[in-house]
Task: structure prediction
Amino acid sequence: MKNILINLINNGIVDGYLDDKNKNKVIDIIKTIKDKYLYKTVFHGLHHSEKVLLFSFILGTYFKISDIDLQILTDAAIYHDIGRVDDNEDTFHGLASARKIEKVVTSNIYQDPQNMAILKAICEGHSMDDKNMDLTAENYEISKENLERYEILFKILKDADALDRTRFMKTSVAALNEKFLRLPISKQLIELANSINENYRMKMSDIHFEQFKHFNDSEPTIVCKHGIGFNFFNLHSILKHGLLSNYAKIKKRIFNKRNFYGANNELWICVTTKNGEASKKFIENFISLELVVPQLQQGNKSRSFALSNGLPYDNGYYDDESFVFYEVPVKNIKKININPEILNTTIDNLNYLTGSGNLDALTFTVNDYLNNVRLLGYFPDVNDLIEILSLYKKEILKYESLSVNEQKIEQNQFFKKCDDYIYKLNCIIQEWMMQVFQKRFNKTNVTVKDVVVDILESLDINFIFNDDCFYLEQGRQI
Result:
């Protein structure tokens, strides 16, 4: 697996950050990594160590640190997580790593006790609050003349480790928050970090796809459902291209739909097979698709194992959740289900923002609606939208600045304010949707049924409407 980053470097991903000489140095260091000492998970294992090494090296060369300090920094970058016992947030795993690292590194520079002290101190410090930087130096008896060396290596390692938080989806609490980066130059590496992690994801998906590619070879006979909320643009895309996993969308170069990196992983599509918690939340009160598939996969209870092996993850929230591999072709979509009470509801009364209240995810969803209505010739004034998102962001930053105890006290009020902002954003989207489809249909009250029929007819899909359901006929031309 070491060849993933080596190939990326050789293919030019760090051009402009490192010259050829330094690129070769990084490649040589990667080849010497002692895998047996690393923590064996997708989150904090070999790939994480490789990327932290690269970001550390780039920052180290930017600050023109000495060869000795670069050696200390790269050793710390590679082995900073060897004291881990799990993937959870753990402020003491750095200390455990510091205690082990002396038996792993072999460079002659560590014959100088101060070099070893700096190595251990930055390893311990990477998982602790920055305010402990001076105390950690004192604990390891770093001399006054070496404090400046220690402090820059401390900050570089912390930032390099943080930059690889771009491997987490933006809705995750573990995702990178750039305001916590210590060095201004580190913020200029965020785009690179995102690009590298996208490449890692795709490469691992390529490998896992080969393992599962025969999963859909049998006859599709299993009936299941997939909910899409009230996203009519998503419905149009699915009925045109099929129901696709993130990996399938990328392979087919379809980018008009938001990508998810959650329980589905890259290769799987979430469905329900019975009336359980997922069905209640995503199926019963929204638009859903009834499908036939050849085989289902249950989620794995360990998220780390699931990601490491290309499997979906069972987050334990839903008792009726299963997963379909890669894609569901258009021909396997048999029916569109809509709650009869909703079928004739006007589209300016729908809840379009049914997902996460995370600001990044919310902004992405709102922008997706904005881009789609613009494609249909409607160009709304976005000043109110921008103001609401700005106020929402300020509210989140204000809440994040509170202590843990203060957050507990303010929690209910904070969530109420968030709900208010989401409500206001939803009202804006309701107006957009009604304006677009009033003009398209030349009628005042546009219903859910009107829009679904229009989508089916625009794609030349033959259907029969019966018992408040749209039955899609076999053999239609898309």
